[in-house]
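Study this pair:
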Amino acid sequence: MADLLSDDEIAAKLPDEWERVGDEIVRVFEFDDYLEGVAFATEVGEIAEEEFHHPTIEIRYEEVEVRFTSHEEGGITDDDVHMAELTDDLR
């Protein structure tokens, strides 16, 4: 199990363009068309399976929202920050 991050640690470690919303970190990625977003969501899902740390993904017309939290720990951990960084690497 990973340790929960403090508010200060979250603020310091949160990658650019991600925001904290309660016990989750969230980013909306924009795309030129729907299928581009679907392909991105699939790539995020593949990484999530490899890392065994799964986000909530919402696909909209020209954007995909990705949310990470560590459910078992009840909040944000280094695992969430790591996954956000891996997700950013896809863009």
Summary: The first helix runs from residue 7 to 13. The longest strand covers residues 24-30.
